[in-house]
Amino acid sequence: MIETYSRNRIATGNNLPSRELILVTNKQKLETLEKTPPYMEWLKEASAAIVITGRPNVSKYWIQDGSISSSFMWLRATELEVGVGFGAVFNFEDENESAKREEWVRNSLNILNDRRILAILGVGFPENKPKTKKLPSKEEIIYYESFK
Question: GO MF terms on file (predicted)?
């Protein structure tokens, strides 16, 4: 999945390399990351994790760039029938909570202080299929020519 990601150039804001990825497969590190507040218990069962970091000093679009990367990896995992869990680390609404979460991940993986930690994707092959979620219909979320 990461190989596919790296072969295919993923667009970034202003074409700047503002996001970086850390692939974690070590079981002990996965168990440490599982304790990232507010606790990502599903990570201890994952085969791997992909930590998405951003570099605000490189681009003001680091959040968008990391989010786009996350989406592409999620889509590729789905194509490969790999299970994916999303763990938000960066918290836009609560700076203190975000600092606590990011510091846990930063210390766990020796991430440089100029990087922000956006999220963690847990990947693997789940024992059971997740429950189907009722998604809104396209008529509820897609508008044509104007909002209403």
Answer: oxidoreductase activity
